[in-house]
Each structure stands twice: as C-alpha cells, then as structure tokens.
What does this fold into?
Amino acid sequence: MPSLLADYPNAAKNREGKLLRAVNSVLSQTFEDWELRIVADGCDRTIDIIRDNVGDERVKTHLIPRSRLWSGEPRNKGLQEAQGDYIVYLDNDDIFGPDHLANIDKQIGNYSWVWFDDIRYSVRTGQWYENPCRINKLGQHGTSNICHKTNLRVKWDHDGYAHDYYFVAQLRQNSNFAKIGGAEYYVCHIPGKGANAYDL
It folds into this structure.
C-alpha cells in the first residue's frame, strides 16, 4: 500500500481517515496469514498515524523519499520488502471486503498470477456493483485487479497515470494466469467530474 496524504490533483478527501479504513479492512480479513507493507511516499504523517493507531505486528511501515506523482517507486519498495509468496495491492483510499484474501487464496492454485473484477459504486442507483475489468485494455483495469507471485521479479518501471497498464503488460508475458471470481476489492474513489465520479 503506497501512502501519500498530501494534496495532489484528484486526491481523495479525508485521506487520513481513509488510510485507517483501508488498514482496518486488512485487519478484518477472514484469511489471517498476511503482512501489510505500507510505503510512506515521503509522508511522515503516514508513519505517525499507523504508529499511534495500529498495534498489529503484521502491519509494517517504510518511509522513502518523496517520489514523482504516479511513480512506481513506492510499490517497488513494497515488492523489495515483501516476505510473503504473493502480492496483492491496496490503495490507501480503497478497502478489501472481509473475504477478499480468502477468495484469492482458494483459487490461485498453481497460477503465477490471477486477475479479477473490482466492486464500484453507482451514483445513479446508489448501489455497489461488480465492475468488469479488461486486463489487456488501457484504462480498464488497475492495481486493484491483480495478485501475483512475489518471485516473478516484476518491477514498476513506468511513471505516469497508466503505470498499472504497463505493469500488467509485464505480467501478461507469463502465460500461467487466470481470471478468478469472488474478489472483494472496493474502489472507493473515482477522480474527476461528472455522473460517475465519487469519493466515499
């Protein structure tokens, strides 16, 4: 989980509260064999908030120098420090449903990586819905839609808002993957203006 609590274009509101909401969604997982690496992107406030509010030793923080906006450096630091067999990503303004990790664990089998749809909010209907992800289309998937083995040794090496697409393009070079169902990744912030924008 990268964490920058400073303001930037299209940033979510109440970022400090949402950081704790995201962490609590991991603490509430029915699957308990996990570690959470929070990489504070030049953000001492992130370190303070976790230290003062989270007492679980599975939650670890790392402070790195501030990187460029949409840089892959925070996620690369997380990959470098990770001790588990698999990597799942979480943005600090989103949440996992309680069975997110359990559902991935049940289905990942011997795959090198898997992908899944996420869950989004409809402003029009006032309800959450499963959002179909397209893993090979720019702008139609994100970090939220993948889980991969740690030992694939992939890196985030593209700066910019499309960095998710370029990272997944690396994963697609490994053909041992599948789409799975039942993931519970809730996207709680859609930047921009218009009927589809929300910040929950």
Remarks:
- The longest strand covers residues 36-41.
- The chain has a mean pLDDT of 93.
- Residues 2-199 form a domain with the Spore Coat Polysaccharide Biosynthesis Protein SpsA; Chain A fold (CATH 3.90.550.10).
- The chain has one domain: 2-199.
